[in-house]
Amino acid sequence: MTTTRCGAGEKNEAGLCLQVNGRVHTLDDVPREATLLHLLRNDLGLNGPKYGCGLGQCGACTVHVDGIAARACVIPAHGVAGRTITTLEGLGTKANWHPVQAAFEEAQAAQCGYCLNGMVMQAAALLARDPNASEARIRSELSGNLCRCGTHIEILDAVQRAATRLRAPAA
């Protein structure tokens, strides 16, 4: 069942109500121990957020909850009922990339791509708060997102490109 909106913490006889990427989903029989990551990937088919460590330490599962970067692998699904959740799929599409996504593509900032979701989502949340973020601030913000392929220079370049775009006045 799909409703038009969810209230904060809403759970009714129809199930758990989640607002994900601008759509409302009501999920039945959601166990109390289910994580947001589990529901996003297994029930909603959203594969942007990745399962990495399962401890909230690697950043592969990063999503936005009410615009704030959060680790979906450690968030109880029932704890975000009614809140606005955005995944990589909801950030932008190939036809209409978010400036961070476009910059990552241009800077060729992905190698294996496993960390990409977390890096993009963390960077987008930072630049939404602070489009004038310094290189030191960007490095600090991304320090909790692990990349084992060594594309850190390209990732930093991509975030700086996106920041420049977001600061530029609309034409």
Protein architecture, described:
With 171 residues, the chain is of the alpha+beta class. It contains 6 helices and 6 strands; from the N terminus they run βββαβββααααα. Strands 1, 2, 3, 4, 5 and 6 form a 6-stranded mixed beta sheet that branches. The N and C termini lie far apart (42 Å). 34% of the residues lie in helices and 14% in strands. The chain has 2 domains: 11-90, Beta-grasp domain (Ubiquitin-like (UB roll)), CATH 3.10.20; 92-167, Orthogonal Bundle (DNA polymerase, domain 1), CATH 1.10.150. The model has no long low-confidence stretch (mean pLDDT 90). A hairpin with a 2-residue loop joins β1 and β2. The protein is globular and about 45 Å long.
The gyration radius over C-alpha positions equals: 16 Å
Structural class: alpha+beta
Rounded to the nearest angstrom, the distance between the terminal CA atoms is 42 Å
Mean pLDDT: 90
The assigned CATH architecture of the largest domain is Roll
Element pattern in H and E:
EEEHEEEHHHHH
Give the number of domains.
2
Provide a count of the helices: 6
CATH class of the largest domain: Alpha Beta
Got a strand count? 6
Characterize the largest beta sheet: strand count, sense, and whether it forms a barrel. 6 strands, mixed
CATH homologous superfamily identity of the largest domain: Beta-grasp domain
- Can you give the helix content as a percent range? 25-40%
Shape estimate: globular
- The parts where pLDDT drops under 50 for at least 5 residues are none
Provide the CATH topology of the largest domain.
Answer: Ubiquitin-like (UB roll)
What proportion strand? 5-15%
